[in-house]
Each structure stands twice: as structure tokens, then as C-alpha cells.
Amino acid sequence: MKFKQAILYGKAQLADVTAKAEYAAKSDERRSAYNVAVADFLHAPDVDEIDVTNYHGAAGDTVRVRVTDDFKVRQVQVSILNADGTLVEEGNAVKQNNEIDWIYTATAGNESTEGDKIVVRASDKPGNISVLEQVV
């Protein structure tokens, strides 16, 4: 079923001039733009690391997230939850120049980070979503 959806996705991407150009830019003599699009549909992004070294609960603190994908990561959303599950804040991280690190800058103060959870949701062009959680 998923492969059938990937085939339909690949065909639809080739029918769109902008999408076709994006996938063609990643193609080579072994893989056509169509093959790149199908593979993209079949592979969700990998959230490889959540680095909370610089997050201590103050506005302006940062969380670094390392995310990779076979084509392109579109969005990385970070949620910070208290130990009891209440939402402290959430928002989108910003892609860094190295193309694999994303930085989320906290906007809210958080008095106690003990037992808090950082939840990262990364998505790619076809809408695949990967989630990784880490306790602070």
C-alpha cells in the first residue's frame, strides 16, 4: 500500500514544475527525479540528536536538534513539557547553515526543568513525520 502511494506521489511531483525541478536537482545518472521523489516518500526524516546542554529554563536558552533526511527536512517543531505533561511552550526550530542542525530558542521562562520533556517533530516534503522525546 505504501509503495503504491509512493508511486502516485512520484508521478504527482513530476507533474508539478517546481517540485520536479527540486527532485531533478538531486537526481543523477543512476536515479531519476521520479526515483528520488518515490524514495523521499518512503523515508521519514531521522531525528538523530536532541542537545539540551544550553537549555536551563530561561527565555533565550536554546535546544539544538540534529535532523537528517534523504531529500530535505521541511520543518522541525520543538515542544517543551513540564514533568506533569503541561505544555510550557512550542514552536519551530531554525535550520542552521550546516543543513543538519536546527536551533530552537526558548521564549518562556520555566522555573523547574527537572523531569521536563523535550519533544521534537520533524517533517519532510511528502509529510512524513518522525518524533523523538528526551527528558531534560
Summarize the topology.
Layout (H helix, E strand, L loop, with lengths): L1 H14 L1 H9 L7 H10 L3 E6 L10 E7 L4 E9 L5 E6 L1 E2 L5 E5 L11 E8 L4 E7 L1
Antiparallel strand pairs: 1-2, 2-6, 3-4, 3-7, 5-6, 7-8
Helix pairs in contact: 1-3, 2-3
Task: Considering the chains and any ligands shown, give keywords for the structure.
3 helices, four-stranded antiparallel beta sheet, 24% helix, alpha+beta, 136 residues, elongated
Task: Give structural notes.
The chain has 136 residues and is an alpha+beta fold. Helix content is 24%, strand content 37%. The protein contains three helices and eight strands, in the order αααββββββββ. It has helices spanning 2-15, 17-25, 33-42; strands spanning 46-51, 62-68, 73-81, 87-92, 94-95, 101-105, 117-124, 129-135. The strands form two sheets. It has a four-stranded antiparallel β-sheet, with no helix packed on it. A four-stranded antiparallel β-sheet has the order 4-3-7-8, with no helix packed on it. A hairpin with a 5-residue loop joins β3 and β4. α1 (2-15) crosses α3 and α2 (17-25) packs across α3. It is elongated. The model has no long low-confidence stretch (mean pLDDT 96).
